[in-house]
Amino acid sequence: MSEDGNPSTDPGAPEPARPQGGTGRADGAGSPAGSPRPASAGRRDSMQRVLNNVTAPARPDGVHPALIPGLGVERTGRKYSLNIPVFILAAIGVAAVALWGAFAPGNLEAVSGAALSFVTRDVGWFFSVLAIAVFVFMLWLGFGRYRHIRLGRDDEAPEFSTVSWVAMLFSAGIGIGLIFYGPSEPLTYFLDLPPIYAGMEEGSQEAVHAAINQTLFHWGPIAWAFYALVGGAVAYASYRKGRLPLMSALLEPIFGKRTEGPLGAVVDILAILVTLFSVAISLGIGALQIGTGFEIVTGMGPLGNAATVGIIALLCAVFVTSAVSGIKRGIRALSNINMVLAGLVGVFVLVTGPTVLLLNLIPGVGMTFLSDLLALLGQSAASGGPEAADFMGGWTIYYWAWWVSWTPFVGMFIAKISRGRTLREFVFTVIIVPSAVCSVWFTIIGGTSLWMEQETGLMSQTENTEQVFFTMLDQLPLSGLTSLIVMVSIIIFFVTSGDSASVIMSSIAERGSPAPKLWNTAIWGVGMAVIAAVLLVGTGEAALGQLQSLMMISALPFALVLVLIMAAWAKDLARDPLILRHRYADEALHQGVRAGIEEHGDDFTLSVEPAEEGKGAGAWLDSEDPALSEWYTSVAPEAGPAEEASGGPGEYGEPDPGARAGGGPDGPAGR
Fold this sequence. Notes:
The protein is mainly α. Helices cover 65% and strands 2% of the residues. It has 22 helices and two strands. Its main location: membrane.
């Protein structure tokens, strides 16, 4: 038996469906007849018959809800078309903000500032509660009773190799922020400790751990749990339940067909808007930092607005070109290249910086972060007073809102590249692995920044945030070359994020189309660039703050959508065919073993025979309930259990001997 009570013996593929009906019941039987066989073989065969036959269909259509193997959306025959109301209303919203910022920047600044104050002051608690809820929910899915459910058909293998999968996760999910905030955010906390670390001496060695811990709290497991929630929900709905890859479709278990009407349109419009505003922030950050890097590398004076607009236009052209080249040729290649560049920068800083200090700091930070995690999760304005409220509003709540706003496009992208993974593999890799990489990155880059501040005091004299990374590199050898590499990495980081965002927004506007039209993709890519350019040029130094305000305001209603997604996904998983089979197996074994002991003592085997209605292994389930199988039979009526059998190797907890760790059919082993 596996740890969740499910049999771990490999049951093999189910036998063809028997024509006769009846509810399966496992009873105790006498000693096996026929030629003598080893006792273990007899038990294994008996167990296999129980697991294979207790769910034999007793319905005219021949499809039992426990035998449905899963269904990819591409096999449903769905036709994709432009969702005109979603496209038009979302485009109007983007155009309105662009015009507002161009012709009334002062008014936009005042209104967005007031709205931002409301979000951080009055509903910041909601984002804090949501962050904890999402983190706990994803751990429950990944390591609880649902962990063996596959994000695809029962026999589906992963499409991408694990290395490429992690590279794409990392590059598209975090991006420019690692460069922009890598040395600067720990430095900020080092010089002005967060309220939770009140009592420590600012600038001390103890403050080094505190500063990096607070940074990892914002960039680590919580952020990736948000991504995993939407990514896993979309992958499950699209590749196992045959639904469209849309935010609105995730709510179908709760709202049914209403998700195809105005309610669904509102959800999809919100998804487009929060995606556009959040990525526009990255575009603004990227433009500012590339401009700063260009000034440092070339020795030129400050760049004006024309240069900023030119950088934005160039980035827009690059990521739109990448977007139309296709996810495999564009994103995958760029992600792998950037992982190498970022890794080289990290190793270079480790080797040329305070190497011994950093090597000691990496495991130390990991342990102190884990020990401080509960306290970090529990900090609030109520316990810390006005100072804590200000800190959380300016930092923690802002980050939670930012991750919420990034979930539609990063989540949908993660869904595309995670098909065929089990929930356990998905949750572990999406949450733990990138968080560990972020921990090492912030410890090396942030730790070096803090060491330089302790030694020279130069870092705190940097004029603005976008200069901090280049100031740090300037204190190390080969600063000209490394600054150039960092600029290239920033460009690639943004291209991967902008590429994904453009494709995802256009896909949402075309009802989840996997290959949206070129003009549609280009429109949303240009829209992001226009928003960033208008606000950066029109409002000067306050531009980035306005972008952040717009993002947080749009993230609030979408945070409510995430709550509904958790409820809908949990409802879906509770009636997943694999879970139904596990429940059948538990009931059959319980009844059979009890009856065997009572009737035959120590020596008995298990067999399957019809039982009276309401008394067999499936008495707990109404298999005629349309909610359990109509989603499958309505779009794949030809797919019966004999043709597409469920229950292959590994179903009940054992590893699938045929699965390759490196990926699917076109993974490294096949290329």
